[in-house]
Amino acid sequence: MLEARNICLEVDAGEEPLFLLNDVSFCVPRGHFMAIVGPSGCGKTTLLKSIAGIKDITSGSFCWEGRDLTEEGDFEPHEIGYVPQFSIAYDELTVDESIENSARLRVKADEDELNDIIDNVLAETGLTDIADRQVKLLSGGQKRRLALAMELVSGPRILLCDEVTSGLDPRSEREIVELLHELSMKDGRIVISVTHSLAQMELYDSIMVMHRGNLAYHGTPNVMCHYFSVNNFEEVYPQLSGREPEDWSRSWLKHRVDYYKRLEKEHLQKFMQRGEEPPPPSPRSEEEEEETITPGFFSQLSTLLSRRFSIFFRDRGQLTLQIAMILIFPIMVACFTDQGWMALTNLNDSSGQTPAELARAMKDQANQNALVGSAISGIIMFQVILLGLMGSNNSAREVAGERLIMEKEKFAGVGSMAYVCSKVVFLSVLVLVQCLWMFLFVHYFWGFKGDVMNHLSFLLLANAAMTSVCLGISANSKTADQASLLSIYLVGFQLPLSGAVLALDDVLASVTQPFISAYWAWSGSLSGVENTYRDVVDNIVQTSFAPYNMCLLVLGAHIVLGIILTYIGVRRTRWE
User: Of 173-182, 277-286, 417-426, 452-461, which has the strongest mean pLDDT?
Assistant: First the structure.
């Protein structure tokens, strides 16, 4: 049984607190199908999220099978299923893949057991015939069925549904409500559905009517119209506005005992008509609990990685963009490599030259050296900036773009560390491919004169640092657009604040350069250039080079900082 005792949720609204939920109490027996209805803004979804533990209540308590959830902790992930208003499936995956991934992330079982779970859930939700269809090709009703199927893989004892029938045509709406009713009859499952629609009310075992945070009614559909003195369900909402919410709440409390007796009687009759016994109010056995243990870190990591690569290769837009950047950016750099390693002249033998000839030779040498130095410095910085742009594109939307799905999966038992590690591994592969191709292609046309591995290492670190920091930005941004904008700004400031083109004021440089990965990658790469050419670059660049070890340390710190920020952002709950 689920029981709510004097639930209150208040928020600061100025001089007086605003009650989103005001002294709400109710009971729901096992094997029950309940609707929460009411006008917009009445507290339906707030109550549902409070039951789930997504929203913290101000006072009161929820009890589940005799366990006080307020004192003893929220539902275990396997005990509860929550179907939100938004889609929890990726468009690029098929129905079968979506359910399989959900099962692998939530249920610890061998392959045969997992296959049985997937097949049973597909049949239970009527999705068997479209198991191979991509999510983006599903109708609204089919997507609702898929969302339910993804929750049923763990066999939850309480299923919470938030507006799962919104936007559907009447036939599809009725089919979903009938499906929910059937789900409530299996294994003593409680199904609670939030809906704005007052159609199909006769299919519910009970209806809870909310009015501005107050409980106005909770009883069977048969007596609901009588209670509100209306002829049909559609007249209930206008009737609510005729009295204050507190008045409806007091009225309900006066009739609560009688209506609950009727509700209990009809609840028993429902099972008797099917020749079944009402489910006993007892928790699962130890054997049942062992079957629903959440998979471990490595199992979840493997599933998340497999899913991410599948989505990547099926997302034609993102894949095309990645290929275009990998192919075009190195070509852009190679276009400027002609003068990068011109022979440097010297004036060791100046005998026999007139002063005018010597002056002219010195001028030519200075011009050539400046040209070579500028080319070497510019080409290295060009590579670093372009790899920084790739890094920004890699990760700016990686977390923020799927924030709600991530929150839903965390709620279902997916570990934050497994999620972060899956992103780090996936992005590391992109970084490695991008940097290797940039290095090999440019090196073929340019022929880096110096420590080749040193140059490659700093290209990798430059890309990895920007990727990591932008991943941290993504994990802590409210929206994907916000994360993208901040990441673009970060890349845009790399060149002017690096000091590689125009020298920065010493005070400004000391403040900004620690945060500019392009400076450290550029400086570190130049440390591996042959001494003759490095001296030429040093003569034309006013910004001093940082020591090799310092470059490694700072870029490594950028990567670590980005991962830490990512973990903090992923751990933080943000449903809105």
Answer: 417-426
**Cα 267 to Cα 34: distance, rounded to the nearest angstrom:** 11
Query: What's the alpha-carbon Rg for the chain, to the nearest Å?
Result: 32
Positive or negative, the CA dihedral 328, 323, 435, 567 is positive
* DSSP state string for 74-127: S--TTTEEEE-SS--S-TTSBHHHHHHHHHHHH----HHHHHHHHHHHHHHTT-
pLDDT of 353 reads 61
- Sequence-ordered alpha helix ranges (H) in 412-540: 416-446, 452-476, 480-492, 494-498, 506-512, 517-526, 531-540
Residue type, 515: F
CB atoms within 10 A of CB 458: 28
How many whole angstroms separate alpha carbon 475 and alpha carbon 569?
5
Q: For residue 359, with 0-12 CB atoms within 10 Å meaning exposed, 13-18 middle and 19 or more buried, which class applies? A: exposed
Q: Of 354, 4, 363, which Cα lies nearest the Cα of 208?
A: 4
Q: Which long-range contacts (CB under 8 A, 24 or more apart) does 118-126 make?
A: 118/153, 121/149, 121/152, 121/153, 122/95, 122/96, 122/149, 124/149, 124/152, 124/183, 125/149, 125/152, 125/179, 126/179
Classify each residue of 169-186 as buried b or exposed e, where b means 16 or more C-beta atoms within 10 Å of its C-beta: eeebbebbbebbbebbbe
pLDDT band at 348 (very low <50, low <70, confident <90, very high): very low
**From CA 383, how far away is CA 55, in angstroms rounded?**
47
Do the Cβ atoms of 442 and 383 come closer than 8 Å? yes
DSSP 134: B
Q: Which of 160-174, 263-277, 320-334 has the lowest mean pLDDT?
A: 263-277
- Which residues make beta-bridge pairs with 446? none
| Short-list 80, 67, 18, CA closest to 46 | 18
What are the angstrom distances between the C-alpha of 92 and each of 352, 466, 526?
76, 27, 43
Cα dihedral 102, 108, 112, 117 sign: negative
pLDDT class of 457 with cuts at 50, 70, 90: very high
Distance CA 266, CA 262 (A): 6
Tell which residue, 541, 539, 536, has the closest CA to residue 503.
Answer: 541
Question: Which phi and psi (to 5°) does residue 68 adopt?
Answer: -80, 110
Reported as type and span, the H/E element at residue 373 is: helix 355-395
* Predicted pLDDT of residue 15: 65
